[in-house]
Design a protein that fits this description.
The complex is a heterodimer. Chain A is built from 18 helices and 2 strands. By secondary structure, chain A is mostly helical. Classes of the chains: A mainly alpha, B alpha+beta.
């Protein structure tokens, strides 16, 4: 959507390089002159925040590896060695462990923003699916990273999650043995998880490059969901407008991150993980990290082992099919009176599942988990059905109209009802 | 014989090279996958550590249970009380999720000793019920705190999400109170 390049090399060196490797041109076109919708709100800063978090996790992670020992008898002590002996080791480890949580906070905001504003709809299906792939890779990375300190929660988390594969018929047990490299979670398991935990962030990085590439082909969605029609009127250049907004959002996010790191570094962790792994005793109350809780609640809601695993997997995979599940042509929930309420109900359902995932699996909690699991999947069914009959509100004719209308507090954008009623698909 | 550049006959030397190279490549990739996947399996050291072990059960008093490891896996040995044995035998096998009689799970003449793997068949947690103060579940056996599975005094699943009984490892008595596991 950006059209031809507006980069003009100014110096002889730049002209020389541009004829051989146009890397400055690429940067200029994608991060300086790249047109962004002029009505983006702060929810759109989380993409940049996520890119920052990925780099921060890779940097702190590579440093931690310089002091960590991936062995069942030494890993736990090497983490304590990092905390006590290594200069600023406590800071680097807390940045990395809290960074994982902050990464998930940001990604959940990013996903819910996409759900609300219909960012998964045409022409952004591939962009959205790449996002789901990144989410899956993030979950695998976070899970394996949590195993590395070799505390009680690490060990039993690894046991429970790898045992999920044993639910598969016939080949399940073999897969689990191959995951473990033995007959139980032990040193070989720790070693291979360490190797993969180091690899996966770079795979995430690769998919992020594809994600941004796809984004720059189709252009950003925006709060109205109306596509850019006139680049002059509807967009502003990425730099300085989006750059400064992203940086400001990032700074505010860092304040929260810093508060956790410096004041509540273990708030999002578990005390049990400061006890060394013991294969003979499971902690009385075993729960995964907070960011897995909704999916864990779905797993436990189904009273059948294989069924639970399938339900949990489906809860994530269903997101990838959302572009075709949602039948409405209107992207933004702002203009969808029924779907908007469904969205907020879905948001509450996800929070409720998160709460239930942290509670013991007994009595009323199980029944509640089952109800909320049904509601979770119900959202996707409802989106399919509602899109067929829902009458959306009048869409603004263009992004510029929407911005100017709200700037004057008037309803200039609402007069063009006839135009807006037409499906707003261009790509 | 067709000339190498003569495409009118449909078959050229390039087609042959394409197929031959493709076939060789497919075989090479297939062969490369074997070591790449096989290395994930338990290594020789881990397998060797699975040699049989001898255990003397004499110190295990009636009503007491111990934990031991074989092949890195946790094993429970419980010296059952008369009441527990009777309860285990009284169950109607047809009503069980994983039907097994108590006789199938113990050795004749040594019914007092129950020897089973100690990881819940649901997702692998260690059920409680060995130590004196532990909850033993609704059936005088074990209770798994992770997801709420109840096992009876024969280690059979009675309630909760676990699909199977706690399995019995391969073992044999070679003496009144001596066993060899493996």
């Amino acid at each position: 959507m950006s059209g031809h390049s507006s980069y003009v090399p100014k110096t002889g060196i730049e002209r020389w390089l541009d004829a051989r490797l146009p890397i400055i041109r690429l940067t200029h076109d994608s991060a300086v002159s790249y047109p962004v919708p002029r009505n983006l709100n702060y929810l759109w800063t989380f993409g940049g925040i996520l890119a920052f978090m990925l780099v921060a996790q890779i940097v702190t992670g590579i440093i931690l590896v310089m002091h960590y020992t991936p062995h069942a008898t030494m890993a736990f002590n090497s983490v304590e060695h990092i905390m006590r002996d290594v200069n600023y080791g406590w800071l680097l480890r807390y940045l990395h462990s809290n960074g994982a949580s902050m990464f998930f906070i940001a990604v959940y905001v990013h996903i819910f923003r996409g759900l609300y504003y219909g960012s998964y709809k045409a022409p952004r299906e591939v962009l959205w699916i790449l996002g789901v792939v990144i989410f899956l890779l993030m979950m695998a990375t976070a899970f394996m990273g949590y195993v590395l300190p070799w505390g009680q929660m690490s060990f039993w988390g690894a046991t429970v999650i790898t045992n999920l594969f044993s639910a598969l018929p016939v080949i399940g047990e073999t897969i689990v043995t191959f995951l473990w490299g033995g007959y139980s979670v032990d040193n070989p398991t720790l070693n291979r998880f360490f190797s993969l935990h180091y690899l996966l962030p770079f795979m995430i990085f690769g998919v992020v490059v594809l994600h941004i590439w796809a984004l720059h082909v189709v252009g950003q969605n925006n709060p109205t969901g109306v596509e850019v029609k006139n680049v002059q009127k509807d967009t502003v250049p990425f730099t300085p407008y989006a750059t400064i907004k992203d940086l400001f959002g990032m700074v505010v996010f860092m304040v929260v991150f810093g508060w956790f790191v410096f004041y509540q570094p273990n708030f999002m962790g578990h005390a049990d993980n400061y006890i060394m792994a013991n294969p003979a005793a499971t902690p009385a109350h075993i729960v995964p990290e907070w960011y897995f809780l909704p999916f864990y609640a779905i797993l436990r809601a189904i009273p059948d082992k294989l069924g639970g695993v399938i339900a949990m997997g489906s809860a994530i995979v269903v997101l990838a099919f959302l572009p075709w599940i949602d039948t409405s042509k209107v992207k933004s929930m702002t203009y969808r009176p029924i779907a908007r309420q469904l969205f907020w109900a879905f948001f509450v359902v996800c929070i409720a599942l998160g709460y239930l995932g942290a509670m013991p699996a007994e009595g009323g909690y199980v029944i509640a988990s089952q109800i909320f699991t049904a509601l979770y999947f119900g959202y996707f069914v409802a989106l399919f059905v509602v899109g067929l009959f829902e009458r959306p509100k009048a869409l603004p004719t263009s992004i510029a109209d929407a911005v100017l209308a709200s700037a004057h507090g008037g309803s200039a954008a609402r007069i063009a009802t006839a135009t807006a009623a037409e499906p707003n698909v261009k790509g | 014989m067709a000339h190498a550049t003569d495409t009118s006959t449909g078959t050229t030397r390039r087609d042959f090279l394409m197929l031959a190279t493709g076939a060789a490549g497919a075989v090479a990739i297939g062969a490369a996958v074997i070591p790449l996947v096989s290395q994930l399996a338990p290594d020789a050291q881990t397998v060797a550590a699975g040699a049989p072990i001898d255990v003397d059960l004499a110190p295990v008093a009636e009503g007491q249970a111990i934990k031991l490891f074989w092949r890195g896996k946790l094993i429970f040995v419980r010296h059952r009380t008369k009441k527990e044995i009777e309860e285990a035998k009284a169950v109607d096998v047809a009503t069980l999720r994983d039907p097994q009689t108590d006789e199938q799970r113990t050795k004749a003449g040594h019914e007092q000793f129950l020897i089973i793997y100690g990881n819940c068949t649901h997702l692998g947690c260690v059920p409680l019920g060995n130590a004196p103060g532990d909850p033993k579940g609704d059936f005088d056996g074990w209770f798994c705190p992770c997801h709420g599975s109840h096992y009876d005094s024969s280690g059979r699943i009675r309630k909760g999400p676990a699909p199977l009984n706690l399995p019995v490892p391969p073992y044999a008595f070679n003496g009144d109170t001596k066993i060899k596991i493996g």
